[in-house]
Amino acid sequence: TAGLTSLEVATRVAALLGEEVLVSPPADDPAVATSWFLITPDGKRFRASEASPGGDEDSVDIDRASLRPL
After folding, report:
1. 59 or 27: whose pLDDT is higher?
2. Of 39, 58, 63, 66, which sits with the fewest C-beta atoms within 10 Å of its C-beta?
């Protein structure tokens, strides 16, 4: 769908799959290199930090204690 942000798409995907979804913050976000947005199936949105930044490029472990509502 045209005009949707990645956060809006991730919110829809999380609801459809019934799973949490991670998405990168916008490129102009100053924390884009070290943080993610976590979206829950019920539409809640959080900023999350990686548990061990710079680790395995194929997986991301989120530090659950770092979750902050968007």
Report:
1. 27
2. 58
The neighbour count for residue 8, using CB atoms within 10 Å, is 13
| pLDDT for the residue 24 | 87
What are the DSSP E strand ranges found in 8-70?
A: 21-23, 35-39, 45-50, 62-69
DSSP state of 4: -
| Residue given tokens 């459809």 in the structure block | 16
Tokens encoding 56:
């395995």
Q: Token pair of 33, please?
A: 């290199």
What is the phi/psi pair of residue 61, to 5°?
Answer: -100, 125
3-state SS, residue 1: coil
* Distance (Å, whole) CA 64 – CA 15: 20
pTM above 0.85, yes or no: no
